Amino acid sequence: MPGAVADSSALIGLAAIGRLSLLKDFHQRILVPPAVWREVVVEGGNKPGVGEVQKAVSQGWIEIISPKNEDLVRLLKADLDEGEAEAIALAIEIKAEIVFIDEAEARRTAEVYGLRKAGVVGVLLRAKVEGKVGSLRSELSKLRKAGFRLCEEVSQRVLQEAGESE
What we know:
Distance between the termini: 40 Å
Shape: globular
Strand content: 5-15%
Largest sheet: 5 strands, parallel
Strand order of the largest sheet: 3-2-1-4-5
């Protein structure tokens, strides 16, 4: 089983609202490249995600794996930050089931390479559909309070998909 690859936004966003374990529920094995580990844990200070990600690594369900294709990482870094570039390169190399990534340009790049992708909101929508969270609206509200940028159009669309539109 190839596993899933996560960028820092997915780890930080889900950890900020106490939902990091959803990644484990959906994809028992989550891989993160070194740049994502550095961004979330080493440079994270006391921000959301630091302790949760360290614990997940010690429990073995998040693994730190380096992408081998350094040329591809360099190419991707022309348009993306280092964590996004490494995450996409790693997802390509291992033929990941999915890459968890939120930034628009990184999502477009993942599409170009034929990667299946989802962001924090997609994870929460799946959790709602599968009965793992009671209210998607409540989870989105928590995300906003934690400082996660979420456009109203996306919010309304997923609430409608979840049967929670007004």
